[in-house]
Design goal:
The protein is mainly α and 60 residues long. The chain has one helix at residues 2-59. 0% of the residues are buried.
Length: 60
């Protein structure tokens, strides 16, 4: 009787853990693929702002 009650709970727990692992793998993939691009774009934006400031200083 107890095993009949515990089996669905164990099954749903295993299913949930597998789904969490799959989401974690997808998240790691997205971070590994997109984070370097975002960091490079951020660096380019700061360099562009510095360039604009130096051109303005030169024009003065």
């Amino acid at each position: 009787m107890l095993t009949a009650l515990m089996a669905p709970m164990v099954g749903s727990t295993i299913y949930s853990l597998r789904q969490i692992a799959a989401v974690d793998q997808r998240l790691d993939f997205v971070v590994d693929q997109r984070l370097p691009t975002v960091l490079d774009l951020s660096a380019m934006a700061f360099e562009l702002a510095d360039s604009i400031a130096s051109v303005r200083g030169y024009m003065l």
